[in-house]
Every structure is written in C-alpha cells, then in structure tokens.
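Quick check before the chapter quiz. The format below is the same one you will see on the exam, so make sure you can read both the input and the output lines.
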Amino acid sequence: MAKLQEEETKTLEILYDQQLVDDIVYKGLAEKERVGDLELYNEYHEKRDAIYEIEQEKRSKKFKEHDKEFFNRLGYDGYVAEMFDEFPDIKETVEEVHVRRATTRQNEGSNVVDEGRKIIIRLYPELFIDGKEIRKVMRHELKHVSDMMDEGFGYRVETFNCSPMEERIIRDRYRLFWDIYVDGRLVNKGLETTATREERKREFDSFFSKIPEETRELIFKKIWDAEETFTHDRMMELSKDVNKVLVLAAGSSSGEGLVEETKKLGPLPGTTCPLCGFPSFDWVEEVAEDEEVVKFLKKDFPDWEPHDGVCSRCAEYYKIKAGKW
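Here is the expected output.
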C-alpha cells in the first residue's frame, strides 16, 4: 500500500543546467532593473555579496542555491513543468527532464535517452525572460518527444554513407518535414506552436523553389494536414529522394499531371540519377549540349532525355568515353 501511494505521488524531476539558471537569473534581474523594479534586484545582490563572507570551499554550493532560489522566485521554474500537463503520456513514462542551454534559437531541440526514461531539452535563455514564446517552443519540442517515444513512429538515430554535403541536405529536409508534421497537428487542434502554416509554407517553398507553386501546395498540404501517418522511415525516404516528394502531389489527375510537369524542369537535388540509380546532389546540365557525349550516353540509355538529367559521376564517365576529358 505504501509503495502504491509513493507511485501516485511521484512527480516528474526537472533538472536545470546551472549555466542556464545563472544566465536566466542574470538576464531576468537585468530586465527588472531596466523597468525600475529594484526590490528583488537589490535583495539578490545583497544576499550574493554576503556569500563572499563565508568559507571559500562552501561558496560554490551557496551560489548555486542562491541562483536556484531566485530562479524560482522570478517564476521561471513553472514554464517547463506546466507544459507536461498537455502530454500525460510523456509525464507518466519519463523519470527525469534535463533542461540545458541552447546557444542560439537554431540550437533549440530535444532528445530522448536511457530507453525513454530521460528527456534532454535545449532552450534559449531569453525565452524565459520574454515568457511569451516558451510555451510554444515547449509544446513543439514535446510533440517531437511524443513522436520519438511512439513505437509506431519508429524514431532512431541514422548513420549516413554519403558525403557531408549530402548528409546535411538530407538532415535539413528531414528536420523540415518533421517540423511541418509536428506543427500541422498542433495548429489543427487549435494549439499555438513555434510556426504558423504560412511560416512553415514559406520555409518549405525555399527548400523546394524549383517545384511549381501548385505542386508545392499539394505536397505541403499532405504533410501539414497529416493526410497520412508520417513515420521516421517515411520522412527519411522523402529526405533522400525528391522523386518521392513529388509523388505526394499525386492522388488526383491534376496532381499526377503536375508531377510530370515538374520532372520536365530537370532533376532536383537528391533526385535519383536515371543512369546510375543513385541519389545525386550535383547535376551537370551542359552534358545535354554536347552532341558527342549525348551520342555515347544514348547508346546505353536510348530513352534518356535532357530533362532527365545526368549526375556528376555519370557525366564524367561519358565525357571520358567521348574523349572529352
């Protein structure tokens, strides 16, 4: 019975990185001073000055306790804790949450470790001072965490057998697809998150600017409205092969037509080369203008057309065969 009561009263342990706490308290009190609210500011510095009067070996612990006290009194301790109420599935499973300092807004993120028992969240210190955006950021990150803890989503850390440039492009695309999938589900439930539909659409447009707008809208809508379940493997496929992204626009006669139209514009970074069958991020357009190279290429691939594209590896091979290297 005693064990049952202990489990019922168990609370989620949230541990803040000391550097993050120090930074937040410093910035928070500076803001208090700026607006002329000096009571807490003065009390903080009076108590901090007093710590220098005790034995040196005890000061480090006292400074930590001091900053933690004012972190709580400034009300910053509640921002993270309250957001877990929206995600009871996480709250019931996780034992510890480690909140660490993100050096920039771009470095914000989350991860699940120790077989789902521990969450690591990186937050930008200014979020605590402003107080307006932190709930949106936490909601966005916890939705990521919820996906990571969902066996059906199938999240895992990937290893890549490709160049650093290709890996970066794949990772950037994956992040974009997942962010759209996360924010779409939140917004469609009436919840605020880090980006609106319009903001995510602009980001998507910048990644896939070569795809016609009508096609982009069809693709984006599929992901934003979660018209299908996007697992880790599904989004990794999309990140590696743009042809599979284009297929998302299909589903209607107009959609299929748009896909064909887009292919005629030429290959996109990450599209599979029609000659070697490997994804390419480096296409050589001038090959189509060289009749000798095209002649040798067409011997092996008679159905090849200039808009199909040639990757840099295949271009080098056929240039050598044509004596142009």
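If your answer matched, good. Residues 2-135 form one domain.
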